[in-house]
Amino acid sequence: MLKHIIVIILASFFVITSMPYAQEGLQFLLSAHDWISDTLREVFSGEQAGSLARELLALLAIPVAIGLIPAILFWLAKRRWFPWFMECVWFVWLIQTAALVILYKLPPTASTG
User: Fold this and answer.
1) 17-33: per-residue pLDDT in tens?
2) What does the buried/exposed string (b/e) look like for 92-101 if buried means 16 or more CB atoms within 10 Å of the residue's CB?
3) How many Å separate Cα 105 from the centre of its chain?
4) Span 58-76, mean pLDDT?
């Protein structure tokens, strides 16, 4: 119990002191997502199915690409597959998705009245 309290205090201190860097990292992550989404806009139609496919690929591309970086480095060093590849992908996906949900704006709708 004491170890958990110490770890959470140290983690909280780390988060507070690294907040500007974390904001820059999140901004870069969201900019990369927007760039991929805009690039895929040229490939997919503007209809609902095309938009859904474009957003799905844009949401998955960055976590997989970031997860491949340590996987490739691990493979070059050990000549075997990186055992925590999917955990890295999930971690980046959760951070990216949380940032996208926080910044999401509802599209304007026609009023019915």
Assistant:
1) 999 998 999 999 999 99
2) bbebbeebbe
3) 18
4) 94
**What's the pTM?**
0.76
Q: Which long-range contacts (CB under 8 A, 24 or more apart) does 10-15 make?
A: none
Q: Which two tokens stand for residue 28?
A: 């870069």
- Exposed, middle or buried by CB within 10 Å (0-12, 13-18, 19+), for 54? buried
Say how many CA atoms lie within 13 Å of 86 toward its Cβ.
0
DSSP 8-state class, residue 81: -
End-to-end, the C-alpha distance of the chain in Å comes to: 58
Report the mean per-residue pLDDT for the chain. 90
Instruction: List Cβ neighbours of 62 (8 Å cut-off, separation of 6 or more).
Output: 29, 32, 33, 36, 92, 96
Write down the pLDDT at residue 111: 57
Q: Where are the alpha helices (DSSP H) in 18-84?
A: 19-41, 48-78
